[in-house]
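Model it.
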Amino acid sequence: MEQILVVEDEQAIRDTLQEILELAGYSVLTAQNGKIGFDIIVKDHPDLVLCDVNMPELGGFELLEAVNQRFKDEIIPPFLFLTAKVEAEGLRYGMSLGADDYIFKPFSSSDILKTVRLRLDRRIQLLDKSRSVVKTETMIGDANKIALPCNDGLELVSFDKIIKCQADRAYCNFYLTDNRKILVSKPMKDFEEILSSKTFLKVHKSTIVNIKHIEKFVRGKAGYLLMSDGSSVNVSVRKKEELLHLLKGNK
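Modeled.
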């Protein structure tokens, strides 16, 4: 049974949401503020969080930010925000944190159930796609390719065509030489071993680059890289010397 956490400071709304969801067959946990909601997320790992934006103790956006900090590259549940009114800037801020959708008050039971089901189904698809990718030693289609999950299944991609891999919360993006970006429903750390065995280096906690696609290293306290696709990538201080050594040997 799928489990949903409702975080809402108004008891009447909280009780209404719990009733709607339980009648639809979901298991429901509740919290009256973001601080309690955070503890439940850490302990129980619900499948989805339905959360008010404005609450005492810890608001909805602050809760999602805390969850992102706590779980870093791990998969977190979809966040649906409940709000009576939010400015465009607030909407954009919530989406930048990883909000999956907004439900505006007053809402109907059909609004709640339709949006919840849509986001749970999307989560199932992403998790299934993640499970379809086997462990590191079997992820190579041949000696020069890696199997990446995409919308149509698995795509074999040549290592030489990968410019960089960047973390995106619990997922990661592969940037390719044909200007495509493949979103993969696995954390970047799952690819570090296989990429590091090729011409790749992790230059920042969120980025692995293909040494072959570095156009220029711009010096600074840590510095940054200019890549073949015109993008720039920050370099952490502790990776600077290793990077310079590799670049020197790659000339």
